Amino acid sequence: MSKLRVAGPDLPAALKQVIDYRKSGLSLNHVVGCPLDCGYCVRHLFANYEMKKPHLVVGDTEAIEALVGHWAFQPDTTPIQIFNRATDPFLPMVKDHLFTCLEDLDQRGLTNPVLVITRWHVEPADVARLEHLRNLKLTILVTWSGIENDKIEPVDSGIAERSLEVLSRHAVRTKSILYWRPIIAGLNDTDLHFARARGLAALADATVFTGLFFRDEIRAHFKAIGVPDLYSDVARRKIFPVGVERRVLEAFTGIPLFRKTSCGVAFAHGISDYNGHYGVQEICDICPILQVGLCAAAHLKPPMPRVEALAATAGLDPGSISIDDRRIEVADSNEQQRYFMQHSLNYQVHDRKHPHHLGRHGRAELGWT
Ligand code: SF4
Questions:
Q1: What is the whole-number distance in angstroms between the Cα of residue 292 and the centre of ligand 1?
Q2: Which residues pair with 80 in a beta bridge?
Q3: Which of 88, 165, 223, 363 is the most exposed place for a label (fewest CB within 10 A)?
Q4: Quick one: which of 236, 291, 234, 231 has its CA closest to 260?
Q5: What is the spatial distance between Cα 208 and Cα 178, in angstroms, rounded to a whole number?
């Protein structure tokens, strides 16, 4: 019996839909609401930022059945994320649901990668329970930014630091990632921040770094609480200026560091990247040589009939596909359709409308032009 309140009928429609498909996998979100108040939270985009207490949308059994019955779910293949949209999975009471879902999936013998993102307390007893899983490839991504401005991020970064320490001491089959984000130019990109991040990287199996997701709704929130604009403009993609990236790379010379979440996950588990980023070769310039070998061996240009069949399953027009050594290109697609194909083939799938720019690593134009 859940100790969480049940979400009311006024929950925004986007949040009533407990499964969506994102780049890091099929995302299960049947608990929504969070007290942690990170100012840049994506809940601003779902009109859910004011829900400070976690609420249950549907029960765990119903949620898991919806996940494994989803048209895009493939046993042992599709990456899964749990509670990565509208709550923190390690909050009290929320973590009961996290453990129930993980154990249910694991008991089905599924070996899918599972990503769990937190900035909250991960206790030794939590890790002990996670270590009992036998099949899922589980990664805990611990978000840390070192931001000290309480209006932007009220949660003490020391909590994430302790969680990384606990994982480092107690986890064996459970992999951990220092999820260093959001790095914001002029705010948390000093040499001191970089030195602290280097220290934390030693506690994790890999480090992934990224920038700020800065949309109109997030900008408006900061304006309302008196935080000056973090960047001069909003963007569809994450903002990460090239100059900051150069300094991060310099600071991490010799330390395993990844631009893409799935690359960090792949390295932590000793497998190839399930998003096929290897096709976008310039992403791999910072990757450890053994990992490059793994991804290179797995990067096989898929035959057109297989691609067309997957496109048809996803509801895309098979007639509009082109394939080259870097990527598959489709037309008039949504993210769900592209990620289904990408994760099935471990090969990048792009839409003609959103071409990738060489060397920009899928980030916003701001700071690169
Ligand atoms: S080789 Fe490239 S695709 Fe593979 S993990 Fe490294 S950066 Fe990612």
A1: 6
A2: 26, 114
A3: 223
A4: 291
A5: 6
Please give the order of strands across the beta sheet that includes 31-32.
Answer: 5-6, 55-56, 31-32
Angle CA 55–57–58, to nearest 5? 130
Q: What is the pLDDT of residues 82-119, one digit of tens each?
A: 999 899 999 999 999 999 999 999 999 999 999 999 99
- Spell out which residues line ligand 1, taking CB within 6 angstroms: 260, 263, 266-267, 273, 277-278, 283-284, 287, 291-292, 295
Nearest CA to ligand 1 atom 5: 263
Give the model confidence (pLDDT) of 25-59 as tens digits. Answer: 999 999 999 999 999 998 888 888 889 999 999 99
Peptide bond into 35 cis (omega under 30): no
39 C-alpha to ligand 1 centroid (Å) = 31
What pLDDT sits at residue 43? 87
How many Å lie between the centroid of ligand 1 and the Cα of residue 255?
Answer: 15
Ligand 1 atom showing the smallest separation from residue 295 Cα: 4
Query: Atom 4 (ligand 1): residue with closest C-alpha?
Result: 295
What is the rounded distance in angstroms from the CA atom of residue 136 to the CA atom of residue 114?
7
Structure token digits, residue 325: 């050594």
How far, in Å, from the CA of 269 to the mean position of ligand 1?
13
Give me the sheet containing 328-330, strands edge to edge: 322-323, 328-330, 349-351
Closest to 72 in 3D by CA, of 341, 272, 349: 341
Mean pLDDT of 219-247: 92
In order of their start, the domains of the chain are 5-258 (3.20.20.70), 304-351 (no CATH)
Give the Cα separation of 29 and 368 in Å (integer): 34
Pocket test for ligand 1, best of 139, 273, 299 (most atoms within 8 A of CB): 273
Measure the CA–CA gap between 16 and 223, rounded to whole angstroms. 29
Let me know how long the chain is. Answer: 369
Amino acid in position 197: A
Cα(276)–Cα(64) distance, rounded to whole angstroms?
27
